[in-house]
């Protein structure tokens, strides 16, 4: 079983990497991009029986900085 954790900066938190990507896209001629938010995807290979609640605990304790980041868990 696998889980995917999608981590993004919360709305209102400055995203300098996203802004750099937006600026670079504009410089390359892609003028239709008004904003970019950059995040990360963490894929976990889980032992059988590992619950979504356990993955949520992993996020709360290590995988996401819940002060400035939000996350979602996808069990696959």
Automatic annotation (TrEMBL):
It is an enzyme of class 6 (ligase). InterPro entries: PurS, PurS-like_sf. It comes from Sulfitobacter brevis. GO terms for molecular function: ATP binding; phosphoribosylformylglycinamidine synthase activity. PANTHER family: PHOSPHORIBOSYLFORMYLGLYCINAMIDINE SYNTHASE SUBUNIT PURS. Keywords: ATP-binding, Cytoplasm, Ligase, Nucleotide-binding, Purine biosynthesis. Pathway: Purine metabolism; IMP biosynthesis via de novo pathway; 5-amino-1-(5-phospho-D-ribosyl)imidazole from N(2)-formyl-N(1)-(5-phospho-D-ribosyl)glycinamide: step 1/2. Part of the FGAM synthase complex composed of 1 PurL, 1 PurQ and 2 PurS subunits. SUPFAM superfamilies: PurS-like (SSF82697). This is Phosphoribosylformylglycinamidine synthase subunit PurS. Part of the phosphoribosylformylglycinamidine synthase complex involved in the purines biosynthetic pathway. Catalyzes the ATP-dependent conversion of formylglycinamide ribonucleotide (FGAR) and glutamine to yield formylglycinamidine ribonucleotide (FGAM) and glutamate. The FGAM synthase complex is composed of three subunits. PurQ produces an ammonia molecule by converting glutamine to glutamate. PurL transfers the ammonia molecule to FGAR to form FGAM in an ATP-dependent manner. Its EC number is 6.3.5.3. One of its GO terms (biological process) is 'de novo' IMP biosynthetic process. It is found in: Cytoplasm. It catalyses: N(2)-formyl-N(1)-(5-phospho-beta-D-ribosyl)glycinamide + L-glutamine + ATP + H2O = 2-formamido-N(1)-(5-O-phospho-beta-D-ribosyl)acetamidine + L-glutamate + ADP + phosphate + H(+). GO terms for cellular component: cytoplasm. Belongs to the PurS family. The keyword Transit peptide does not apply. Transmembrane segments: none annotated.
């Amino acid at each position: 079983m696998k889980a995917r954790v999608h981590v993004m900066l919360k709305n209102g938190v400055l995203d300098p990497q996203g802004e750099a990507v937006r600026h670079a896209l504009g410089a390359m001629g892609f003028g239709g991009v008004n904003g970019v938010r950059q995040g990360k995807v963490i894929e976990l290979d889980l032992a059988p029986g590992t619950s979504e609640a356990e993955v949520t605990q992993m996020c709360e304790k290590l995988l996401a900085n819940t002060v400035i980041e939000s996350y979602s868990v996808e069990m696959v």
